């Protein structure tokens, strides 16, 4: 009985990972045989680049931007790479605003400040939820429920705010774009919020709301969109699969014993990765049957990261051959590869 | 992140402080090698313990202080919060040496970290606070003025926190986890109970009841387009979970169900800590603590507003006070002070910042208000000086 995955050598990071949703982002750079990993710790972001031969790693750290030194700390909520046809950008979302960097983190190309009130209010202010959509959009969610749509040129810093989508009434938790690569899918993006409400969008000069799936008063902390199917992970530990455009529920899985913190899909193989505070990372397989318009999910593999509340888990490649995991208070990125 | 975090953190740390002090005061009240002498002497010691607890609780639930505490605001740094608790711990005839205060704060913090981490649902943070509150209420049940302040606080907690969503509670929890990040001080009672590993990390069981609202992991259900279930099957979860317990009560009185936040100490379970073996991770601890000068000043302003409502230190020298030792002997306490690793120090508030504050309008006003509350005029100046002196000492 051989295990599907085995543990590889971990990547050490300078700071431990903070307990934030989706706290691991991976960028695979095939031409340079490198993979970048990014992890958030309070107000800093650690970027580790690892060569595929396992011989070289390098580190860089980015800080949240503070326009005014006298103000209080600006904690980072999320960091994620946005892959567009013309360029890759690293996006950081914090309590103060949104920073966009060239993919290696060397140059900041854009800064967008959030409206922060003079004195703190009961309603938190921050940006969270990042998605690269189609050819030229990067969408970022806000604590207010708004979604900022940025128009990204093929190069340079002339990034503009195209529109603000105001459909969600509660804090955005996560957003995802269609990752199958198929041009046939009608839905381009899905956004999720603290009540579990899911909005399905079509991109364009004006984004169009295709469908709104009402939540059941439980936060949806992580969401993916693949071949027109929304995969949503909730605070109850449940995973649900919906047909994006119609809202039809395909499947419901009592997947974890605690709050789900991260989901990821390997688009070429249909493998799904889920990770939660319960210390478990689980690998599932999604199958689409177009004839019967059904989606099925089957369980493939479990990995228990002892005494760790997992906060990030991402595949390192499109087939799901390898994945990385981060946990609260852990100063390493644990890696697993298929046996 | 969440502007609603401070009250829960304060009540958690305060609650733990009271458990620890109560246990130490009881332990110290009966000299081990002496039999009970004159009954009146033993009574006097018991009265002192109750007086110390009452004084601290009265200060903690001071109306003006709580008003400031419950305002929406970002969480304070560890340094700033330590300053508040130093003041609280000295709000009575009790005296603590530096080493004992350090140890007290270590224990308080690790206990709170444990509670936040192990909370089954983020919303259960409120139940943990209620466990602390219930214990505090029990300590002052014979003192009506303080009791009514405690009851007011219950009402405020219920009013502010019960409408919050699960996501908002998780944000509070995430904010707290950043506060406790990289702290791995080993606590003897946790090690003995096997809830903490020898590397200082807490044990996260993959067994036991699931949180209320969660199902035991195992079931996959597939549906047809018309909503009918087409198939269901099970998978191996790798854990041994059982169904959720009933939810705890969020009323003023009630069964809280969860045990996190209840008193884990007793006279037979002494309070001890180990400092060694955590240096690698604790060094990272201080990186988060470091704040540049301008930030320290902003925080001092917030602190002064908060502490403006606290009672001042009682007059008198260390001799007239009742010294409490968090260690078994005076020698051990002295030894702990000498050998405390630098990276575990709670930091020193920059002296330059404290001199600047003399000219700060906000601070002066508060210190002015503060002194007006006093009856004997000569003491007015010394209270302001006490505040500065305490900052300097940090």
UniProtKB/TrEMBL annotation, chain A:
WD repeats lie at residues 253-294. GO terms for cellular component: centriole; ciliary basal body. It holds the Pfam family WDR54. Residues 4-337 form the WD repeat-containing protein 54 beta-propeller domain. The lineage of its organism: Eukaryota, Metazoa, Chordata, Craniata, Vertebrata. This is WD repeat domain 54. Keywords: Repeat, WD repeat. It comes from Gadus morhua. PANTHER family: POC1 CENTRIOLAR PROTEIN HOMOLOG, WD REPEAT-CONTAINING PROTEIN 55. It comes from the Eukaryota. SMART domains: WD40 (SM00320). Coiled coil: none annotated. GO terms for biological process: cilium assembly.
């Amino acid at each position: 009985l051989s295990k599907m995955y085995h543990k590889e050598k971990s990547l050490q990071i300078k700071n431990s990972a903070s307990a934030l949703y989706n706290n691991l982002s991976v960028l695979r750079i095939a031409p340079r045989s490198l993979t970048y990993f990014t992890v958030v710790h309070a107000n800093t972001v650690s970027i580790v680049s690892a060569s595929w031969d396992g011989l070289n790693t390098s580190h860089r750290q980015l800080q949240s931007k503070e326009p005014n030194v006298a103000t209080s700390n600006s904690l980072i909520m999320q960091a994620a790479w946005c892959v567009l046809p013309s360029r890759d950008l690293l996006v950081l979302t914090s309590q103060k605003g949104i920073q966009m960097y060239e993919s290696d983190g060397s140059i900041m190309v854009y800064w967008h400040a959030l409206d922060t009130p003079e004195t703190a209010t009961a309603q938190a202010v921050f940006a969270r939820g990042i998605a690269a959509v189609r050819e030229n959009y990067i969408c970022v969610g806000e604590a207010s429920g708004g979604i900022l749509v940025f128009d990204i040129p093929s190069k340079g810093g002339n990034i503009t705010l195209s529109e603000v989508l105001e459909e969600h009434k509660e804090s955005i938790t996560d957003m995802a774009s269609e990752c199958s690569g198929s041009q046939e899918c009608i839905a381009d993006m899905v956004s999720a919020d603290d009540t579990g409400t899911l909005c399905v969008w079509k991109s364009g000069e004006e984004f169009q709301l295709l469908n709104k799936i009402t939540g059941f008063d439980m936060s949806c902390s992580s969401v993916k969109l693949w071949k027109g199917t929304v995969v949503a992970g909730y605070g109850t530990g449940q995973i649900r699969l919906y047909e994006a455009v119609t809202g039809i529920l395909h499947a419901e899985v009592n997947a974890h014993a605690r709050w789900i913190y991260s989901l990821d899909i390997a688009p070429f193989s249909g493998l799904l990765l889920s990770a939660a505070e319960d210390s478990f990372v689980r690998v599932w397989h999604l199958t689409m049957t177009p004839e019967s318009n059904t989606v099925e999910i089957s369980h493939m593999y479990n990995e228990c990261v002892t005494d760790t509340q997992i906060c990030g888990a991402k595949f390192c490649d499109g087939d799901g051959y390898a994945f990385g995991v981060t946990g609260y208070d852990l100063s390493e990125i644990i890696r697993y590869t298929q046996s | 992140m969440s502007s609603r975090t401070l009250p829960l953190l304060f009540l958690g740390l305060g609650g733990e402080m009271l458990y620890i002090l109560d246990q130490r005061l009881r332990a110290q009240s009966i000299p081990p090698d002496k039999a009970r002498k004159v009954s009146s002497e033993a009574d006097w010691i018991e009265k002192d313990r109750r007086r110390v607890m009452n004084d601290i609780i009265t200060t903690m639930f001071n109306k003006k202080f709580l008003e400031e505490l419950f305002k929406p605001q970002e969480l304070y740094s560890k340094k700033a919060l330590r300053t508040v608790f130093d003041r609280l711990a000295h709000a009575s005839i009790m005296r603590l040496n530096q080493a004992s205060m350090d140890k007290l704060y270590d224990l308080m913090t690790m206990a709170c970290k444990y509670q936040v981490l192990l909370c089954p649902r983020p919303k259960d943070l409120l139940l943990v606070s209620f466990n602390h509150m219930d214990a505090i209420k029990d300590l002052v049940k014979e003192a009506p003025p303080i009791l009514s302040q405690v009851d007011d606080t219950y009402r405020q907690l219920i009013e502010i926190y019960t409408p919050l969503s699960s996501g908002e509670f998780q944000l509070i929890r995430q904010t707290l986890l950043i506060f406790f990040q990289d702290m791995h001080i080993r606590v003897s009672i946790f090690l003995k109970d096997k809830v903490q590993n020898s590397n200082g990390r807490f044990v996260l069981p993959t067994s036991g009841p699931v949180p209320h609202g969660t199902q035991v992991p195992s079931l996959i259900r597939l549906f047809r387009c018309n909503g009918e279930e087409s198939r269901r099957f099970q998978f191996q979860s790798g854990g041994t979970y059982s169904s959720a317990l009933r939810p705890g009560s969020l009323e003023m009185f009630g069964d809280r169900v969860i045990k996190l936040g209840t008193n884990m100490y007793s006279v037979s379970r002494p309070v001890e800590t180990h400092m060694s073996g955590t240096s690698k991770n604790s060094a990272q601890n201080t990186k988060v603590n470091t704040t540049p000068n301008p930030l320290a000043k902003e925080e001092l302003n917030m602190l002064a507003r908060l502490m403006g409502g606290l009672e001042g230190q009682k007059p008198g020298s260390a001799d007239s006070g009742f010294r409490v030792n968090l260690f078994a002997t005076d020698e051990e306490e002295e030894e702990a002070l000498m050998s405390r690793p630098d990276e575990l120090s709670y930091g020193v508030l920059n002296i330059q910042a404290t001199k600047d504050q003399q000219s700060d309008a906000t601070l002066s006003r508060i210190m002015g208000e503060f002194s007006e509350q006093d009856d004997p005029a000569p003491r007015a100046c010394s209270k302001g000086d006490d505040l500065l002196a305490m900052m300097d000492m940090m």
